[in-house]
Design brief:
CATH topology: Beta-Lactamase
Strand order of the largest sheet: 1-2-3
Number of domains: 1
Oligomer: single chain
CATH class: Alpha Beta
Shape: globular
Largest sheet: 3 strands, antiparallel
Radius of gyration: 14 Å
Structural class: alpha+beta
Number of strands: 3
Number of helices: 2
């Protein structure tokens, strides 16, 4: 629990073109894996209280050829791969169908 993210995100939205590396999934409309987050030149600072990120996977949830949501997870102990993308897509589709 001591490593849990405690950042608050209310009112911190900004244009997509100013967004950091997580938005690559939106811009490219495909799953994005960052297995060495600290080496990314395009990353931006984290809000106060945000958990440290070592690696992440972010996927767009598509509906009718449009992005309806994005879903991301981070800090798996080993590198993310295409198998993780498949699991994330299945989970995102189930959550989206359930209305969550």
């Amino acid at each position: 629990m001591q490593h849990k993210c405690k950042a608050e995100g209310r009112g911190l939205h900004y244009p997509l073109n100013n967004a950091s590396v997580w938005a690559d999934a939106l811009r490219e409309q495909k799953a994005i894996i960052h297995n060495d987050y600290s080496s990314l030149d395009s990353r931006k600072g984290m809000p106060e209280g945000h958990a440290a990120i070592e690696r992440e996977i972010v996927i767009p949830v598509m509906r009718h050829q449009k992005i309806a949501a994005i879903m991301g997870v981070g800090n798996k102990q080993t590198n993310y791969d295409d198998n993780d993308v498949k699991w994330m897509e299945m989970l995102a589709n189930q959550l989206y169908k359930s209305g969550i």
